[in-house]
TrEMBL record:
<feature type="domain" description="Glycosyl hydrolase family 13 catalytic">
    <location>
        <begin position="1"/>
        <end position="381"/>
    </location>
</feature>
<dbReference type="GO" id="GO:0047470">
    <property type="term" value="F:(1,4)-alpha-D-glucan 1-alpha-D-glucosylmutase activity"/>
</dbReference>
<dbReference type="Pfam" id="PF00128">
    <property type="entry name" value="Alpha-amylase"/>
</dbReference>
<protein>
    <submittedName>
        <fullName>Maltooligosyl trehalose synthase</fullName>
    </submittedName>
</protein>
<dbReference type="GO" id="GO:0005992">
    <property type="term" value="P:trehalose biosynthetic process"/>
</dbReference>
<dbReference type="InterPro" id="IPR006047">
    <property type="entry name" value="GH13_cat_dom"/>
</dbReference>
<dbReference type="GO" id="GO:0030980">
    <property type="term" value="P:alpha-glucan catabolic process"/>
</dbReference>
<dbReference type="InterPro" id="IPR013797">
    <property type="entry name" value="Maltooligo_trehalose_synth_4"/>
</dbReference>
<dbReference type="InterPro" id="IPR017853">
    <property type="entry name" value="GH"/>
</dbReference>
<dbReference type="InterPro" id="IPR012767">
    <property type="entry name" value="Trehalose_TreY"/>
</dbReference>
């Protein structure tokens, strides 16, 4: 098996192609990287900036240079001694532009008779496929026959062969789909999707034929030695994740395989999965958490309460998840409830919803993880004792036949409820201390003790030494350096609270949770361009779904939020006060950044460096974290480091690149040093501020 000593994540897009990745390969080798780790490279929706919206899994994406450029990149990486890890997306495909996805296009034209009808998870028993693309709920598509197409408002959809005659309404009735208002999608959709995104239709890779068609090209690259590792996106959405990984391992026995599995604190990776570990959100939680001072918790809780921010985490989370089950994933919940026999449909829906709201983890994998399922049922019973009978029925069906359609769909959907309810809603509502609000994190636990860190690191070395570790990804809510500076606030909570009171009195945002999040974000990214902060706050406000949302806008509130960054920056007195505060925490923030990076690069696991983060990177949630990287500047700094320069710890970030380079080079040149794990315990008055360990007899790491 080819396990890289480290990886470097690059976000490929039409503006950064296979050729551009080849252009930085030599730099990555000199930096000390073991493998280039690429975002999805299969053909994606037109103009896609991320590649997770695959339209054709049988070819390398032409917009990235196509097959020839892919081969050239692979050959260069081999020549340089670097591996290639590719991100794959088995759960869904893009159907936003129907003609771009020939499989989906064929299904729209031929319905159940299509050779690809079984490729997508469509509820055919409910009639024609419902496509929520019209502008409003009352919209009626205007019909006109034009050649072999039925022309609607946007000319996107086909007609089935043999239906192009007769009146427009007669043609419409013979179609295999219906266009409906986009608002009806959440409640009436007839195909499974990725979370709440109706333009990403779920794929049935549990079918061996579908697996072969969707994975054949990538597996050919693995067999040819062009690809040495696979990162698997969102396995929780699959019908049978364990079965999927077993089939993947059988077809790629020598590949390094890591799963984007979000583990709750204390949750193990399913033992039946033949993977090398997770993509590292658990490690992120542990490494970032040990740099947070738990002594700051009371002051942050008091400040949040004073400002009107809710501090009962589990209540906020339950409210957010209920919003998802009752308003966003209504169609999915109803489809599950319909599988519960002899129960009133509405009571069945409520029982299913309450169970998913109470899930302690993203999903269970029955019969593995039975304790998590039991905890969900118990939580639902406590919340709704009036649903005891339907919950008992649900529990019995799930346990008796964990491979039933009901069990499969409930487990697929629970992860969607948790992700949308917790990551994408709660984390923007529960803003007491945003450094903890990270994918895989638990904002209710204020930091991580040194002894717990040692225990978890030793467990990773013993169980999954080849798991990926990370501090920043394309999905993190904020980059590692943003989070590191924010962590300093836990060490000066009183000073920060006084500052927030002053700043809020001068120019606050009229929504408490967003207001507190905005000040934390501002000081942790200062100086930040107002446009970047404006875009972030707009997204944060809509994800929170308190005063506005993506679908129901409060225009006046959104205008006030949009004006806030410029108002703050242009207020000389206010901006000066903020700048003075940031100057006091900037140095400790740099120290946190260097410390956590050193830990990530030397602790158990395979460390990933997200593009550009070898220097300071004060990014926010996507798309902010996908901004272009200045590799010319990084090459220049690396050249100076290779010449022996020992840079100062300053705003250039050169000191971080020095740490990254030295640690990566040591891993690559002396891999035997990075085996084993043994805690070292400090003594003295500052012992609690020291994290130290050995990997082998020849390598010791200490961070204070």
């Amino acid at each position: 098996m080819t396990v890289p000593e480290s990886t470097y994540r690059v976000q490929l897009r039409p503006e950064f192609t296979f050729a551009d990745a080849a252009g930085i390969a030599g730099y990555l080798r000199d930096l000390g990287i073991g493998a280039l780790y690429a975002s999805p490279v299969l053909d994606a929706a037109p103009g896609s900036t991320h590649g997770y919206d695959v339209v054709d899994p049988t070819r390398a994406r032409p917009a990235l240079g196509g097959e020839e450029a892919r081969r050239e990149l692979s050959a260069l990486l081999k020549e340089l001694g670097l591996g290639l890890v590719v991100d794959i997306v088995p759960n869904h495909m893009s159907v936003e532009v129907p003609k771009a996805n020939r499989w989906w296009w064929d299904v729209l034209k031929h319905g159940r008779d299509s050779g690809y009808a079984s490729f997508f998870d469509i509820d055919w028993e409910r009639g024609p496929i419902l496509l929520p693309v019209l502008g409003d709920d009352d919209a009626v598509a205007e019909l006109a026959v034009d050649g072999d197409e039925l022309v609607y408002y946007d000319h996107r959809f086909p007609i089935a062969p043999g239906t192009g005659t007769g009146t427009p309404q007669e043609v419409h009735e013979r179609q295999h789909y219906r266009l409906i208002g986009w608002r009806r999608g959440n409640a009436e959709l007839t195909y499974r999707r990725f979370f709440d995104i109706t333009t990403l239709a779920a794929v049935r890779v549990e079918d061996p034929k579908v697996f072969a068609e969707t994975h054949g090209e990538v597996l050919r690259w693995v067999a040819d030695g062009d690809v040495t590792g696979l990162r698997v996106d969102h396995p929780d959405g699959l019908a049978d994740p364990g079965g999927y990984f077993r089939r993947l391992r059988e077809n790629a026995p020598g590949a390094w395989i890591v799963a984007e599995k979000i583990l709750h604190p204390g949750e193990p990776l399913p033992q039946s999965w033949p993977v090398d570990g997770t993509t590292g959100y658990d490690a992120l939680r542990e490494i970032a958490g040990v740099f947070v001072d738990p002594a700051g918790e009371p002051d942050f809780t008091a400040l949040a309460n004073e400002l009107g921010v809710k501090t009962g985490y589990h209540r906020v989370e339950a409210e957010a998840r209920r919003l998802v089950t009752d308003r966003i994933l209504v169609a999915e919940v109803r489809r599950i409830a319909a599988q519960l026999p002899y129960v009133d449909p509405e009571l069945a829906r409520q029982a299913v919803a309450e169970t998913m709201i109470a899930f302690p983890v993203y999903r269970s994998y029955l019969p593995e993880g039975a304790a998590h399922w039991a905890a969900a049922i118990d939580g639902a019973r406590r919340a709704r004792p009036d649903l005891a009978e339907p919950l008992a029925m649900l529990d019995a069906v799930m346990r008796k036949n964990p491979e039933s359609e009901l069990a499969t769909r409930l487990q697929q959907t629970s992860g969607m409820v948790v992700a949308k309810g917790t990551e994408d809603t709660t984390f923007y509502r529960y803003t007491r201390f945003a450094a903890l609000n990270e994918v895989g994190g638990n904002p209710d636990r204020f930091g991580l003790g040194v002894e717990e860190f040692h225990r978890l690191a030793a467990e990773r070395e013993a169980g999954y030494p080849a798991a990926m570790t990370t501090l920043t990804t394309h999905d993190t809510k904020r980059s590692e350096d943003t989070r590191a500076r924010m962590a300093v606030l836990a060490e000066v909570p009183g000073e920060f609270a006084r500052a927030v009171r002053r700043w809020t009195a001068r120019r606050g945002i009229d929504e408490p949770s967003l207001n507190l999040l905005a000040w934390q974000t501002l000081v942790s990214t200062w100086p930040i361009e107002p446009a970047r902060l404006r875009d972030y706050l707009d997204k944060a406000a809509k994800e929170a779904k308190l005063r506005t949302s993506w679908t129901d806008h409060d225009e006046a509130f959104e205008a006030d939020v949009a004006a806030w960054p410029e108002d703050v920056v242009n207020d000389a007195e206010l901006a000066g006060d903020i700048d003075g505060f940031v100057r006091r925490i900037e140095g400790p923030g740099y120290a946190n950044s260097l410390g956590q990076k050193l830990v990530q690069l030397t602790a158990p696991g395979v460390p990933d460096v997200y593009q550009g983060t070898e220097l300071w990177d004060f990014s926010l949630v996507d798309p902010d974290n996908r901004r272009p990287v200045d590799y010319a500047a990084r090459r220049e700094i690396l050249a100076r480091v290779l010449d022996g320069e020992l840079p100062e710890i300053d705003a250039s970030g050169a000191a971080k690149l020095l740490v990254v380079h030295n640690a990566l080079r040591l891993r690559r040149e002396h891999p035997a040093l990075f085996r084993g794990y043994r805690p070292l315990r400090a003594e003295g008055p500052a012992a609690a501020h020291c994290l130290a360990y050995t990997r082998s007899a020849g390598l010791a790491v200490a961070v204070t």
